Amino acid sequence: MALPKLSPTDLEAQLTHLDGWATQNDKLHKDFTFASFVEAFGFMSSLALVSESMGHHPEWFNVYNRITIDLTTHDAGGITQQDIDWATTANKLAAKLAS
C-alpha cells in the first residue's frame, strides 16, 4: 500500500527542513556537486543501498561531479513522506562526504 501524497501545505512545511530541495515538475528536485567523479559516484553508490533498503528509487542523472535527483512516489501520484525521508538521507550523506 502506497503512502499518501503530501498536501501542498505539508510539502511546503517539509521543504523548510530540506536544504537545497525544491519542487520541480511535481517532483522533489536537487542538484548536487562534488569535488570529483569518484565522490559523486560514491554518493550514488551509497544511496543505491539506501534505495534498495527503502524499496524506493530515485530518478537521477550523473555527469562527472554533478548529480541531479528527482523524487516522486509513482504509486501515490506525487511526493510522499518516503520521498522526504530519502531526500533527508541524501543530504546527510552529502554533508558527510563534504566534511
Automatic annotation (TrEMBL):
GO terms for molecular function: 4-alpha-hydroxytetrahydrobiopterin dehydratase activity. GO terms for biological process: tetrahydrobiopterin biosynthetic process. SUPFAM superfamilies: PCD-like (SSF55248). The keyword Lyase applies. Keywords: Lyase. It is an enzyme of class 4 (lyase). It catalyses: (4aS,6R)-4a-hydroxy-L-erythro-5,6,7,8-tetrahydrobiopterin = (6R)-L-erythro-6,7-dihydrobiopterin + H2O. Pfam families: Pterin_4a. Its EC number is 4.2.1.96. NCBIfam families: PRK00823.1-2, PRK00823.1-3. HAMAP family: Pterin_4_alpha. Belongs to the pterin-4-alpha-carbinolamine dehydratase family. This is Putative pterin-4-alpha-carbinolamine dehydratase. It comes from Myxacorys almedinensis A. The lineage of its organism: Bacteria, Bacillati, Cyanobacteriota, Cyanophyceae, Leptolyngbyales.
